[in-house]
Specification:
Blueprint (H helix, E strand, L loop, with lengths): L1 E7 L5 E9 L6 E5 L11 H15 L10 H11 L5 E4 L2 H10 L3 E4 L8 H6 L20 H14 L7
Parallel strand pairs: 4-5
Antiparallel strand pairs: 1-2, 2-3
């Protein structure tokens, strides 16, 4: 299970800010907050406004924040997903992004009737796992929390994924 939280740059490319991997069936997690490839002030005004909104209203992490360089993140993501037979992702844009990085089959969960994230996030049976960055503020989206809730949904609905 992979979740990505992101910004868009001047060319509308997805810029990863936070990513989490939660294994299905194994006790394995990985989480990154990724440095942006260029400075916030390199963005055009409309993209700076959008990135500011994402920080204050959605993610709680700013454009210039991050603990790992993008290239290192990609290497670590490849390792984290290297033993997976399938990677589950919610959202076509995220699925496309992950499929360009990882040479493993990507399953887009919307195609398998996954509920909207807003509904999934309210499910009290799903995990309360959050990263340290988001542990004290449940108002912000946490990629680790999303990935773990999606893992719970996939595990609970495994009949949808059998051939």
């Amino acid at each position: 299970m992979v979740d990505v939280q992101s910004f868009c740059d001047n060319e509308n490319k997805l810029i990863v800010k936070e990513c989490a991997v939660v294994a299905v069936g194994f006790p394995y997690i990985q989480h990154w907050i990724v440095k942006s490839p260029h400075d916030f002030h390199d963005l055009i005004t409309s993209k700076r406004k959008a990135a500011s909104w994402v920080k204050t209203s959605h993610l709680g992490i700013g454009w210039n924040e991050g603990g790992v360089e993008y290239r290192q993140f990609v290497k670590e993501l490849e390792v984290a997903c290297s033993k997976a037979r399938k990677i589950y992702v919610k959202g076509a844009t995220k699925a496309d992004f992950i499929s360009r990085l990882i040479d493993t089959e990507v399953i887009e969960l919307t195609d398998h009737c996954a509920p909207p994230l807003s509904q999934l996030m309210q499910d009290s049976n799903a995990s309360l796992m959050r990263c340290l960055r988001h542990s004290d503020n449940a108002e912000y989206v946490c990629a680790l929390n999303v990935a773990d809730k999606l893992r719970y949904w996939v595990t609970s609905n495994s009949h949808l994924f059998t051939s």
